[in-house]
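yo

u said u wanted the structure for the complex thing, so here. seqs first:
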Amino acid sequence: MIWNPNKECMSRDEMSALQGKRLHKIVEYVYHNVPFYRNKLQEMDIRPDDIQTIEDIKKLPFTTKKDLRDNYPFGLQAAPQSEIIRVHASSGTTGNPTIVGYTRKDVGVWSECMARCLTSYGITRDDIFSVAYGYGLFTGGLGAHYGVEHLGASVIPAGTGNTEKHLKLIRDLGITGIACTPSYALYLAETMDKLGIKKEDLKLRSGAFGAEPWTESMRKEIEERLGLKGYNLYGLSEIMGPCVSYECQEQHGSHICEDHFYPEVINPVTLEPLPNGQSGELVFTTLTKEGMPLLRYRTRDLCSLMTGQCNCGRTAIRMSRIEGRSDDMLIIRGINVFPSQVESVVLSMPEFAPRYMLIVDRVNNLDTLQVQVELRQEYFTATFDTPAAIDDLEKRLAAKLKSVLSISAKVQLKAPGTLERSQGKSAHIIDKRKL
Amino acid sequence: MKQLSIFIENKRGTLLTVLNVLKGAGIQIIASTISDTQDFGIYRIICDDPERAFIVLKEQGITATLTDVFAIQLEDKPGEAARVLALFAEADISIAYMYSFLLSGKGILVFRTSDTERTKQVIGEKSLQEFC
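structre next:
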């Protein structure tokens, strides 16, 4: 089934023409409403009228996460505050989160694109669908929720946590579809085993999995243990949230809602656009967004684009699985974590040396984060020589980390001088997860 | 009395490293105790030369600190520790930590309290004998 065949199955020529028209409009819109972009375009001597076709996109400047940080909180917002009806926030690379405001039309586009995803997963208005992404500042929960409502299925806003109760509802209500992170899906399977619930007791048949990288072998395991078909759902809050691309029944690449989000793949070093089929950094331009439109936003996700007609009937371009990152961002329990965020917290507490190590692991299909820090020699004093005092210090650090990262981390205190001094950025991270 | 407190990671061989440093410096340990959590422990030592022990440990990059603790000398017979602690309890002083050892037929009680000044007062008023 296809939610919007007019757009999802548009001929390539028509799609390019539509994208060109929308690109011109969005460039004109940001030129007049976002000083950051106006200055950039003027520096490059580009006028909105220089952008007429989608090929002209190559003339435009890139936008990075750093630009979002430098313009915190609302510097890149194009619409007046009175038009903004929703604000989400995602991890920034340091102290400040990334703030994204949505107008009513943006929320509508989001719901429309999410409905395309769900329809592609075989969900209809007859389904009962559970959203088990986190609700709140994270875009996962509310993004998927609005899509299910727009589609007309019954939405169960399960959120994360309280897995046993959630499983009871899945069984008792006959829930047929679910959206969550792939690792949470496996955690559900573990909990089913623990409670003696069999997949035959459940009516689940379709799952929308995203917000973290996963593999074909994870897909097989999830499908086998939950008795459903698992589809990839991709998105990022800077561009919209979950809904940017989705797999179809073919499970071979994710179709991009390219009438709203124009994809390019570039060489992350030279910034040159790469031909379709070659792997590089994924870049998106929002073609219709009003709240915070972005030109050529560098996602740092590495993948390739696939052209050609898909057996499902859609013509919309597909992206491969995410192959990695061109920065050191980690995705832990679906939440983006930058080592630099941890660094800023550690540096803010004088009791610790300015060194740290992140150890990421997956225990029973749940990601764990351990932060190792060194106690500074001079803070180990006569008033400090009790386990209670040191425990308290660990707890204070853990609380600060939780508020900055939005996930809890276990703090492990090391003796001064025992952590290796890092040579490069990635030297801060040990990722033991086997994906 | 000076106590040496040493921060010890829960890792095989860490304690031995500390002991080897003290052995190399010819330090005699009189009493010691470890309070531990999952990740680390605090190793507390009464020794014959705490100042020097502190310096040699520091030189080896081991995290340690000198802490003032009380050490009271008691008769080696049942009920003595309870008798002394009752005096502190009456004075509304709580004990942060405590350990004990025997030396030349005397019981030695080592402890830190919530209120150092008040503890000194009680020790003086009740004529408790300090060990040094």
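The two ends of chain A are 31 Å apart (CA to CA). Chain A has two domains: 5-327, 335-431.
cya
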